[in-house]
Amino acid sequence: MLDFLNPVKGFGVTFHQMFTKVETVQYPEVKKPTMPRFHGRHQLNRWPDGLEKCIGCELCAWACPADAIYVEGADNTEGERFSPGERYGHVYQINYLRCILCGLCIEACPTRALTMTNEYELADDNREELIWTKEQLLAPLTAGMEAPPHPMRLGDDEVDYYRLGREDREDREDREDREDREDTVRDDTGEENR
């Protein structure tokens, strides 16, 4: 009996949308802001003194399901130091024709050298321009940074960069010295008290 209303019910969403306010964004002049966790273009980060965080371990390339990342590691020397460790990423390329922006490379990076920005405009009319090199991916130098190669400025060894930082390392060494000097006292139950 009410079968004749079925076509009208199907247009219910359409009729509802006709009377709602239209939100038009004048792209590309006006860009809608992205969410903070949006996966956009990759960025190779730097330490506060300007050295690169990438150590050329190639874990990001191994984790990439689309095989979009190519990394060649090289050894640092005292005369030419690009990162605090023994190695650095000599060649680093991301092919955005293949990249699916999944973020698995970010999770695989042990030094947090690779992150994703909110930049999403990656289109180009030339295929070769979509293979980004290390120079295009590196974070820009900010105030207080020096372009590599240069010696380590934040500490004497890579522990100062990677684990704790200089102040935390000194605090840890002081705490360990205090603990070594303290005598272990056993109470009646046999438990150790410090």
Key terms for this structure?
single chain; 194 residues; alpha+beta; Alpha-Beta Plaits; 24% helix
How are the SSEs placed, and which strands pair?
Blueprint: H1 6-10, H2 12-18, E1 42-44, H3 59-63, E2 69-75, E3 87-95, H4 104-108, E4 114-116, E5 131-133, H5 134-137, H6 158-162, H7 166-181, E6 185-186, E7 192-193
Antiparallel strand pairs: 1-4, 2-3, 3-5, 6-7
Order of helices and strands: HHEHEEHEEHHHEE
Mean pLDDT: 84
The value of Rg in angstroms is 27 Å
Oligomeric status of the shown chains?
single chain
The helicity comes to 10-25%
Sheet with most strands:
3 strands, antiparallel
Strand proportion, as a percent range, falls in 5-15%
Global geometry:
elongated
- How far is the N terminus from the C terminus? 86 Å
